[in-house]
Structure formats: structure tokens, C-alpha cells
Amino acid sequence: MISLIKKRLIQLVLVAWGVGTLTFIMMRSLPGDMAYRIAASRYGQDNVDSNAAELVRNELNLDQGWFSSYVSWLTDLLQFNLGNSLVSGLPVSGEVAHQLGYSLLLAVAGISLSVLIAIPLGIWSAKKGGAVNTTLVWLSTFTKALPVFVLGLVLILVFAMNFTVLPVAGFGTWQHLVLPALTLAISLAAVSNRVVHVSALKVFRSSLYQFSRIKGLTESQTFLRHGVRNMAVPVVAFIGIQLVAVIEGIVMIESLFSWPGVGHGLAHAIFARDIPVIQGCALTMGVLFVVLNGLIDIACYLIDPRGRQEQ
Q1: Exposure string (b/e) for 182-208, b if CB count within 10 Å is 16 or more?
Q2: So what's the pLDDT on residue 305?
């Protein structure tokens, strides 16, 4: 367990440095006048001229060399200082912390819904097989082939525009969470239900499962005592792999539904060339990915005793 945590901490430091450096290089490589973009975000596109852009450039020291800027950024990062937004002037840490709460709420809701969808469907298709399994394979393949924003648009057309039972976008009530969480959940469940199917089928056909039935245990007793834990490890491990899809999907889903999370803030910061906010959002998402993967590793370690013997 200790060695596992050490590895994840080292990975956390490398990811924070790598993501931050890559973001810094990419933002500095974008074409166009950064000072003009920032001035447009501050004062409005129609109120910006060369004088306003020059004032912003002088105020923020945007004419500073890239190496000096990078060293300054890296020094602040080592002091856990993400700087201030170039547009609003507010501390980036405060803005990102506010957005992170909404992103975590969406991620937890989406993953929870995907588990509630994928596990029953995967177990059901493993037990039934035949036409049920074939139908779910085609349905899962079709759903996964759809980009997540297309899936979100379909849900908006059905539930917000046609039946008008849910709001189109925004936040404030639990109804605003339903469509973005459902979009994320369906996208994740399209693949994870097949992982549950394979894992359940392997357990159902195993000798230990068959022997439990021969001993006289009922189907439900055998499933609870020997089925759940054995099929849980690959499913939990796959959730860790899906975290990439969760983080990627959250950026598009938050922008589509105007959900005020890290992904939505990142999209606005990119258009405004707000480098500190971009770096803060990217760092947060990278660190969040490592932390969640570490929690998945710990869960697999606790579920499967064989993993402890290999440590």
C-alpha cells in the first residue's frame, strides 16, 4: 500500500509539471496578439483598440521573454501559487476551487448513474445471452460511436425541447444536473456494460461458481458470496481507465449545458487567452485524474487479496 501511494505521488508531481509546461508552451505558440484578446475579454470586442491592448500588455508584462515567464510561473507553482486571472484579476485558485465543486458533482453523478445502468445490463446479458446480448452489443456500439455532444443534443431535443420536463442548460436546481449527468452516464455505460458482461460471464462459467451451486447454495447466495467480489476487480479497474473519458467528456458536456465547472471555465479561458486560468484548470484536471486513479488502485488492492501478495 505504501509503495503504491509513493508511486502515485511521484506521478502526481510529474503530471503537474508536464501538464503545466505543455499548456504554457501551447498558449505561447497560439497566433494573434494575446494582449488584444485579453483586452477584448475585459472591455468587450467593440471597445478595444491598439491603445487598450498596449495598456494591457504593459500592465501584465506580456512583452516579457518566454523563458523569464516560464521561470516565474514555475517558481509560483512550487509555492502553490497559481497567480491571478489576466481578465478578472481574481486569484486563480479561488476560481478553480469554485468550479471544481461543480465538476466533481457532475462526475460523481455521471459515474454513479453509469454504474446503475451498466451493472444490471451487463449481468442480465451474461445470464440471458442470445438475442439479448446481441441487441445490447449493437446498442452499445452505436451509442459509443456518437460523440458525447451529439448525445447531449439528442437528450436536449427529447427532454427539454419536446417534452419540456427538464431545463436546457444552466444550474441552480437538481433538474439542471439531470441532463448533463445522464449524457455522461450513457456515454460511459455504453462501454462499461460490456466489461461487466465479460467479467460476469467469466465468473458464471468458473469452476468455483459451479462448485458452489453443487454444494447446495442458491443462485442468489452463490452470486453474493462468490460472484460479486470476483467480478468487481476488472470492473473497478476499468472505471479507472474510463476516467480519461470522464475528464474529456466533462469539458464538452459542461460547455454544451453551460454547467459552471472546470471544463466550462477552461473553454472560456482559452478564448480569452487567460493563461493562468488555463494552466490552473489543466493542472486541476491532470491532478484529479491521478488522484482518482490512485483511489481506484487502492480499491482494487482492498478487494483482491492476490494484489497484496504481489506487492
Answers
A1: bbbbbbbbbbbbbbbbebbbebbeeee
A2: 60
